[in-house]
Design brief:
- The structure holds two protein chains of two kinds.
- Chain A is α+β, with helices and mostly antiparallel strands.
- Chain A has five domains: 2-79, no CATH class; 84-215 and 568-585, von Willebrand factor, type A domain (Rossmann fold), CATH 3.40.50.410; 223-315, Immunoglobulins (Immunoglobulin-like); 318-481, Rossmann fold, CATH 3.40.50; 497-555.
- In chain A, the strands form eight sheets. A nine-stranded mixed sheet of chain A has the order 12-11-14-15-26-33-32-28-29, with no helix packed on it.
- The longest helix of chain A has 24 residues, at 593-616.
- The radius of gyration of chain A is 37 Å and the shape is elongated.
- Chain B is α/β, with parallel strands linked by helices.
- Chain B has two domains: 33-77, no CATH class; 78-282, Rossmann fold (3-Layer(aba) Sandwich).
- Helices cover 35% and strands 30% of the residues of chain B.
- Chain B has nine helices and ten strands.
- In chain B, a hairpin with a 5-residue loop joins strand 8 (216-222) and strand 9 (228-233).
- The longest helix of chain B has 25 residues, at 235-259.
- Classes of the chains: A alpha+beta, B alpha/beta.
- The A-B interface holds A 26, 28-43, 45-46, 57, 614, 617 and B 89-92, 95, 178, 180-182, 206, 208-209, 212, 214-225, 227-232, 234-235, 237, 240-241, 244-245, 248.
């Protein structure tokens, strides 16, 4: 036990005058008795019978001293370290990312975190206030600052682990931002560490406590699923599955592939630690339905990453509109038998053409306005491009490219010579996927529901069109652009937690749009500017999309190495502090002065009662 | 004003002090002596030896047995009734007054016979003494002596009895005391019994001795020694104290019985008449 105000103990010196006054007061009345003989005899027998009689006689003094002791202790504000911290404004951040569903602690990491959070809330005094922030796929304040503990308990009880990548960073940012508006904010983060780095998040004066949950890193996961055309046949498709063992020992992994419940592939491989293992399965091009991929392994604490889904459609045509461009580009695009190419000269483009195009390729001329939500490939720094250009630069040297980006698949960029390119001054939400010493050369990204690939150089001012990389890049780009379109790539899958966006036919009424989640429940959707947005995609599985009479589907998969690597973090590194994990429980203070004060008053009351009783007698 | 109410004296006039034992007295009296004497009451025969008074020869026996036998008669002698009053300071107040009255009444009873009555006040020495007197005419003198006995100093009955003059002949010792002294009662009793044929102990106890009217934190002061004692008294304490006093009194009574003395516990709240006419008659001390 420690004291917040140890100087208060000095008041214990009041015991000296109290005892002194007691003995001074003891000028007892003298009573003459014939003889003390019998009293001495009586006293002797009494002492033999009860050695505590002397103390009993001094009951009043003892009660006064006890009351003084309790009041002095209360004044010195003693406290005990308890499992739960004392906070005036407690912000509880609970991580509900997919990894919190791991069952290495009972019942799950989230369950364990919620139990501890309940303890925290229970330890709050009546004057404390608490807030509950859920750091799942999205950061939400589920219970704003309140002194109502039952609201906080209810909020905690309602928590469920998502099957999506978490946003702990945003959760912690939001929590520490509370310290700016009120003093004494204590942030308690209940998490297994999360995937994001928090190194640039300042604590902002808040006292941050990290309560780690989880103890094991044993997990095997499906980390990638992809469906591609078979190299041997245009009409065949291959399913690529990558599994990884995040535990410390080898283990046997079995991958099973089902198409609409029918087992179409099964492989078993030894999964060495921290090494991805790929599995390839053949899938016919004329088949459609739902592909389910499962991974079974012995030491596997996380279930959400053991299943992946793909909504498989038949291979269909891609309607590409090429504006300008030469025959080389046109031929390259037509190398894909699924591509239906229409060519137009630069100039105004009829709306009907745009509506009937899955992607538009601009090779020359101006890029017109009003292409929001459409898939666009812009081959060069054309006027009206999706990024802002500055001066022209000479001989940019390729420094690197994103090999994993679908647009750059199978393409080596280090040999390509570019004589002129233009500096990019504003990316406008596009991400550079090929970088040079002079700035980005190729940018890609999504703008207003449509995908955009933008070249910062004129291909004709490079040797790219003379290389095999040119048709491959074009087809990759067209494939990526049309991946999400209604008639585009065969398999549709998004990461869990990320919004699903689809362009709807003009004037589609909201009532006719319905999305049914993997658990069979309807999911809220938003429709604006003919764009359908589905935000709640936190569950792994197939989401059925009904637009009027047309039915389609898309899948959501975790496929997040960050979440699958479930080894708990020992600490949280924030910008201005390293928050060490509190072992077992968070260290907190529980002040005892209220109890001591109450006991002191009770002791005084008993003393008063005894005094009056003695006087009355 | 008389020490004993006249009405009570009238009732006591017909009473006398009983004795169970025979003892040799000093003078002719009404109590049977262990000696053979000249009373009218036949006691025994013995064979004639030369020198015997021929007036006491039993001529009837001589006629029948042809042997000379002398007739022996009971001797009746007096007793000295010794009124021993504890006049230590612990007796001051109602206890000493009650002791005076009780002693006076018993003196009146004793003087009604041929007994002689001596009065002594005992404290740490012999503080008062009146030699034996005889006859009702001495009543006032005895009463005056009793009234002159006042409480003073401490208690040392052993020493006081040493100073007390040895009386001729057998006696009955009546000790009026609260027995609140440290000296063992046995020693005092044995000393009394060695001089007297009978000893009666009148244990005078006042309400202050039995259950004092005190409460709370007080200092008790010994009336005799001035010694002090700090006590905190409540109802429960008083209950336990009262039980201790009763236990002590019973132990005292047992000691008296064991040594052959009569014990009478006399609370000062009791009526003098009841004590004499009821309790003492029941115990066979007066008859």
């Amino acid at each position: 036990m420690n004291f917040l105000a140890p100087l208060g103990l000095a008041a214990g010196a009041l015991a000296i005058p109290l005892v002194a006054m007691y003995f001074l007061k003891l000028r007892r009345k003298k009573v003459k008795v014939p003889s003390l003989l019998l009293w001495q005899q009586f006293q002797k027998s009494e002492q033999l019978a009860s050695p505590f009689e002397r103390f009993r006689r001094n009951l009043m003094l003892l009660l006064q001293l006890l009351a003084l002791l309790l009041l002095v202790l209360a004044l010195s504000r003693p406290y005990m370290t308890s499992d739960a911290p004392l906070a005036r404004s407690l912000v509880v951040v609970v991580d509900t990312s997919a990894s919190m569903g791991a069952e290495d602690v009972s019942p799950t990491r989230l369950g364990n975190a919620v139990e501890r959070a309940h303890d925290l809330v229970s330890s709050m005094s009546s004057s404390d206030e608490g807030m509950l922030i859920v750091a799942g796929p999205r950061t939400e304040v589920t219970v704003p600052f309140t002194r109502d503990k039952s609201a906080l308990h209810s909020g905690l009880d309602a928590l469920v682990a998502s099957e999506a990548r978490g946003a702990l960073r945003e959760g912690v940012q939001l929590a520490v931002s509370m310290a700016r508006s009120r003093p004494g904010v204590e942030v308690v983060v209940l998490s297994d560490g999360g995937a994001d780095s928090l190194a640039d998040v300042p604590t902002g004066g808040a006292e941050v406590t990290f309560v780690p949950v989880g103890r094991s890193d044993d997990n095997a996961a499906i980390v990638a699923v992809d469906l591609r055309r078979s190299p041997s046949s245009e009409l065949e498709r291959q399913l690529f599955v990558t599994a990884q063992n995040y535990g410390g020992d080898d283990q046997e992994g079995t991958v099973e592939v089902y198409l609409d419940g029918e087992l179409i592939g099964l492989r078993s491989e030894t999964l060495p630690p921290d090494t991805p293992v790929s599995f390839v399965f053949d899938v016919g091009g004329d088949r459609s339905g739902t592909i389910k991929v499962t991974l079974a392994a012995d030491d596997d604490y996380l279930e959400a990453d053991n299943t992946a889904w793909l909504a498989l459609a038949r291979l269909s045509q891609r309607r590409i509109t090429l504006i300008g461009g030469d025959s080389l580009t046109a031929r390259a695009l037509q190398a894909d038998p699924r591509v239906t190419l229409r060519r137009f000269a630069p100039g105004p483009i009829p709306a009907t053409i745009l509506d009937n195009s899955d992607a538009i390729v601009f090779a020359n001329g101006n890029v017109p306005d009003g292409l929001e939500g459409r898939n666009v490939l812009i081959l060069g720094p054309l006027p009206g491009s999706k990024v802002e250009f500055a001066d022209e630069v000479r001989n940019p040297l390729v420094l690197g490219w994103r090999r994993t980006h679908p647009v750059l698949r199978f393409v080596e960029w280090d040999q390509i010579i570019i004589s002129r390119s233009q500096q990019v001054t504003d990316n406008r939400n596009l991400v550079a996927i090929v970088d040079s010493d002079q700035g980005p050369l190729v940018l890609a990204g999504e703008v207003a529901g449509g995908r955009v690939v933008q070249l910062a150089f004129d291909p004709l001012r490079s040797d790219l069109p003379l290389r095999v990389a040119w048709p491959v890049t074009l087809l990759n780009a067209v494939g990526w652009l049309t991946e999400n379109s209604s008639t585009g790539e065969a398999a549709q899958a998004i990461p869990t937690g990320s919004p699903f966006v689809r362009r709807l036919p003009d004037d589609t009424p909201l009532e006719s749009v319905r999305v049914i989640g993997p658990d069979g429940n309807d999911i809220d959707v938003q429709v604006s500017d003919n764009l359908l947005r589905v935000r709640d995609t936190s569950k792994v599985g197939v989401y059925e999309l009904r637009i009027g009479a047309v039915r389609s589907a898309f899948a959501a998969n975790l496929l997040s190495p960050d979440e699958s690597e479930i080894g708990p973090r020992p600490d949280l590194v924030l910008a201005d502090s390293v928050v060490q994990a509190s072992v077992g429980a968070t260290a907190g203070r529980r002040e005892l002065w209220r109890w001591l004060l109450a006991l002191g008053i009770v002791a005084l009351f008993i003393e008063w009662f005894a005094y009056n009783r003695r006087r009355a007698a | 004003m008389s020490l004993v109410p006249p009405k009570l004296l009238q009732k006591l006039a017909r009473l006398g002090l009983s004795t169970r034992k025979r003892a040799a007295g000093a003078r002719q009296g009404e109590r049977r002596s262990i000696r053979r004497g000249q009373s009218q009451e036949f006691a025994d025969h013995r064979q004639y030896v030369p020198g015997d008074d021929l007036r006491f020869l039993d001529w009837h026996l001589y006629g029948r047995l042809d042997t000379l036998w002398i007739k022996l008669f009971e001797e009746e002698e007096d007793r000295v009734v010794q009124l021993l009053l504890d006049c230590s300071e612990s007796m001051e107040g109602d206890k000493l007054q009650f002791a005076r009255q009780l002693a006076g009444a018993l003196a009146f009873v004793a003087l009604g016979r041929t007994d002689r009555v001596a009065v002594a006040g005992l404290s740490d020495g012999l503080s008062h003494y009146a030699p034996p007197r005889r006859g009702r005419a001495s009543t006032n003198a005895i009463f005056n002596t009793l009234e002159a006995v006042v409480a003073s100093s401490g208690t040392d009955l052993g020493r006081a009895l040493e100073s007390y003059p040895r009386q001729r002949g057998a006696g009955i010792a009546l000790l009026f005391s609260d027995l609140l002294y440290e000296e063992p009662l046995e020693i005092v009793l044995k000393r009394l019994l060695s001089r007297n044929s009978e000893v009666h102990i009148f244990h005078i106890l006042s309400p202050v001795d039995l259950r004092p009217d005190i409460y709370g934190d007080v200092v008790l002061v010994d009336q005799e020694s001035g010694e002090e004692m700090h006590v905190s008294v409540n109802e429960r304490t008083l209950d336990r104290y009262e039980a201790t006093v009763h236990a002590w009194a019973e132990e005292t009574e047992a000691t008296c019985r064991r040594l052959g003395a009569k014990y009478v516990r006399v609370p000062t709240t009791a009526s003098l008449e009841d004590v004499i006419l009821r309790d003492l008659r029941r115990l066979g001390i007066v008859s």
